[in-house]
Design brief:
With 335 residues, the chain is α+β, with helices and mostly antiparallel strands. It is 36% helix and 18% strand.
């Protein structure tokens, strides 16, 4: 080995001194010695979910998980072990970026993902959703474009019938060259989805103002001194935070147009490296887990989720189209 390394070093560094080739009697080429046949078959990777290869349950994203979260994670892991017979260990990812990377590397198997993190992991075909979060019994929510009543914009939303009166292209073209107010640069409802709709409608706006909070977007539109229009979830105007100071907010701030309810909440996903039947068994375990008070409390502590329903990948298709139309990088939308 030393001789080979020395030869490589000389070849890399180069030689500036003259080299003399010495002629001599050729050395006979030795006959290669055949290596002995292997006496043992290499050990196969243990089956997933066994003591030697446990499934990895990722807790909620947190640089410093609390003792309560760790204890609740143990409750979830113990329940799944009891119901499935699979061996689990828990880990605490410091960020969603690290979590998605762990999925891609096979270092996480059971995870909770935000919609953007799920779409990013889906690009590598590394996950399958098994359970979707519900809020107030709903699996999706929508976004709305809002403006001050005195702004001169036309509202294409009929509040009495709760429906739009024109398509997005017709309703949003009036926003050309206007200035938007956004919540923050990772908000699905108050930036990403509305931006995707504007791009699809080929409406170019001025640079927007990011106000760090959807109530702040409503306040800015109410005052009409920062931007021409805003975008929020449905219906941020009715937030209790605004009620005391803006009693007439629903009258003064009007809805120009609303999106369908296509924005999903967080989900529980499984790594595609797991066999299909194993994924089905774990999905059943999560359904049963949410039927117990202890399990439901543990899921709330670990993931902040109170309700779950069975999920399918198709639930994310419409949302994914608008995220793509936004032109934003998925890796920039997670932390």
């Amino acid at each position: 080995m030393k001789k080979i390394l020395l030869t490589l070093s000389l070849a890399i560094l180069g030689c500036t001194f003259p080299v003399q080739l010495i002629q001599g009697t050729p050395t006979p080429t030795p006959t290669p010695t055949q290596p002995p046949a292997p006496t043992q078959t290499p050990l196969a990777t243990p089956e997933p979910g066994t003591e030697k290869n446990p499934l990895i349950l990722a807790l909620g994203v947190s640089p410093r998980p609390s003792d309560e979260m760790i204890a609740a994670g143990d409750v979830i892991a113990a329940f799944i072990e009891l119901r499935t017979g699979y061996r689990l260990v828990t880990v605490a990812p410091a960020s969603e970026t690290a979590l998605v990377d762990a999925l891609n590397r096979g270092n996480a198997h059971i995870v909770s993902l935000s919609p953007f993190a799920y779409l990013l992991a889906r690009e590598n075909d590394s996950v399958t959703p098994i359970m979707a979060r519900l809020r107030d019994g709903q699996a999706f929510y929508g976004a709305q474009f809002i403006a001050n009543r005195e702004s001169g914009f036309v509202s294409y939303y009929d509040a009495a019938r709760d429906e739009n009166t024109a398509d997005a292209a017709e309703a949003l073209k009036q926003l050309q060259d206007k200035k938007p107010c956004w919540s923050d640069n990772t908000s699905p409802s108050a930036y990403v989805l509305p931006l995707g709709l504007l791009n699809q409608a080929q409406v170019q706006t001025r640079s927007g103002a990011f106000l760090e909070g959807q109530p702040n977007v409503v306040r800015a539109v109410y005052a009409a001194d920062i931007c021409d229009f805003g975008a929020t979830f449905i219906d941020a105007r009715l937030s209790p935070i605004l009620e005391a100071d803006y009693a007439d907010v629903a009258e003064r701030v009007v809805v120009l147009w609303r999106t369908p309810n296509i924005i999903p909440y967080e989900n529980i996903s499984l790594a595609n490296s797991l066999p299909v039947e194993m994924r089905r068994v774990i999905q059943r375990a999560f359904i049963d887990l949410m039927l117990t008070p202890e399990g439901k409390a543990a899921v709330q502590t670990v993931y902040g989720i109170d309700q779950l329903q069975i999920a399918e990948d198709a639930m994310y298709d419409d949302f994914a189209l608008y995220v793509k139309a936004s032109g934003l990088n998925l890796s920039d939308l997670i932390k």
